[in-house]
Amino acid sequence: MAHSKVVIIGSGPGAHTAAIYLSRAELKPVLYEGMLANGTAAGGQLTTTTDVENFPGFPDGVGGQALMESMRKQSERFGTEIITETISKLDLSSRPFKMWTEWNDGPDNAPAHTADAVIIATGANARRLNLPGEETYWQNGISACAVCDGAVPIFRNKPLYVIGGGDSAAEEAMFLAKYGSRVTVLVRRDKLRASKAMANRLLAHPKCDVRFNTVATEVIGENKPNGLMTHLRIQNRVSGQEEIVDANGLFYAVGHDPANALVKGQVKLDEDGYIITQPGTSYTSVEGVFACGDVQDKRYRQAITSAGSGCIAALEAEKFISEGDSPDEQKPNASVEHSVVEPAAQEVNGEVKKDPKGATAEYKSNPLL
Ligand SMILES: Cc1cc2nc3c(=O)[nH]c(=O)nc-3n(C[C@H](O)[C@H](O)[C@H](O)COP(=O)(O)OP(=O)(O)OC[C@H]3O[C@@H](n4cnc5c(N)ncnc54)[C@H](O)[C@@H]3O)c2cc1C
After folding, report:
1. Residue 345 pLDDT
2. In this structure, what CATH number is given to the domain that contains residue 84?
3. What SS3 string covers 209-265?
4. Could you tell me if 162 and 172 are in contact, meaning their C-beta atoms sit under 8 angstroms apart?
């Protein structure tokens, strides 16, 4: 059985950013990247898309797969050990934390790995509707992320559709209205679930329409390799009447499923299943367990925000490890709602000064970072 100071579970921008920071800090992190974990290839959600145009540093855009391969290489370059296996079970009840892999999860098997600290970066999956035609036109007209894909040329001045009735659907529709000729929101029920303010803004928007009691039943498009979607079959749920409408884009806003199976029942989750982290940090309700990326972010879910939270998780895991198990240390915990740790010391000319009572600084930056 292997033991590491810190194990990272996941393989998206959050996991790799954490790995880059921790390996540069010489903590020899091990990263389990998964083998088709949650149905997604190692590298995470970006491996399922073509061009990423909003990740800084790439003025001409970068392929999602290429971006994740570069992150992986960067993690390895500084000494991250990457294991291409899926973690199937995690025991967070005592330290060191124990984990089992898919090929090693029988009841009598010893854990494959133990760790003093664990970073959960298992991501989330956008829900799909499995409509006829969805597989063919996924990323060729169908998307689950308006912010990511809305600006691409195939949607410019074209009729676009959004499916969903909540705040996300309303936000996405109004965002898409900047690009499309018209945006129609299909709502299954006879009213919007969105907040009143958001619903009012959507209903008043000059470029948006809302069709209630209406569902999409088929995506139709060009019949050639990499053909684009051109139409949508929709149905009124009350009258049963079907029609085929011009549609060059279809955006799903029907929710995401955070990949929380490993930690369910062990760390605190919110009502939608996202790991609760203390605001502005990666601290979960279990000391020594940190979370970053989409599994703890139900609002932004972007590659750059995942990377940013991966950096935070690495710095906090490093601090946790360097502090060891001192019982005197007061460590933040997500069960302490919105607690703010006042800095006890100030950095002056690169040096951290202790306060008169002898308390140590909240965070002392590592010169290796
Ligand atoms: C089609 C599409 C296009 C997108 N386009 C953009 C874009 O243009 N710009 C942008 O900023 N964002 C975009 N996003 C969103 C972006 O991809 C996510 O916000 C980001 O990838 C989340 O990163 P993450 O670190 O949380 O991990 P994820 O990318 O969600 O990856 C986590 C991965 O960890 C692995 N894993 C999960 N469980 C286990 C386990 N038990 N053991 C081992 N490994 C495991 C799996 O491979 C999983 O996929 C897009 C998303 C999609 C789906």
Report:
1. 38
2. 3.50.50.60
3. EEECCEEEEEEEECCCCCCCEEEEEEEECCCCCEEEEECCEEEECCCEEECCCCCCC
4. yes
Domain span at residue 152?
128-252
322-335 burial: b if 16+ Cβ within 10 Å, else e? eeeeeeeeeeeebe
Active site (annotated) includes residue 145: yes
Domain membership flag for residue 68: yes
Residue 23 lies in a domain: yes
What SS3 state is found at 76?
A: helix
**Residue 1: what pLDDT?**
84
What pLDDT does residue 201 have?
A: 96
Q: Which atom of ligand 1 is nearest to the CA of 17?
A: 25
| Same domain as 177, residue 287 | no
If one residue of 113, 118, 122, 127 were mutated to test the ligand 1 pocket, choosing by the most ligand atoms within 8 A of its CB, it would be 122
Does one domain contain both 118 and 262?
A: yes
Count of other CB atoms within 10 angstroms of residue 157: 11
Q: Is the CB of 303 under 6 A from ligand 1?
A: yes
Please check whether residues 132 and 50 belong to one and the same domain: no
**Which position has the token pair 């799909």?**
128
* d(C-alpha 250, C-alpha 232), whole Å: 8
Give the number of other Cβ atoms within 10 Å of residue 13's Cβ. Answer: 30
Q: pTM for the complete prediction?
A: 0.83
One domain for residues 16 and 89: yes
pLDDT along the chain (369 residues), means of 10: 96 98 97 93 91 94 96 98 97 97 81 97 95 95 92 96 95 96 97 94 97 98 96 98 98 95 98 96 98 96 97 98 64 42 38 39 42
Q: Determine the pLDDT at residue 108.
A: 76
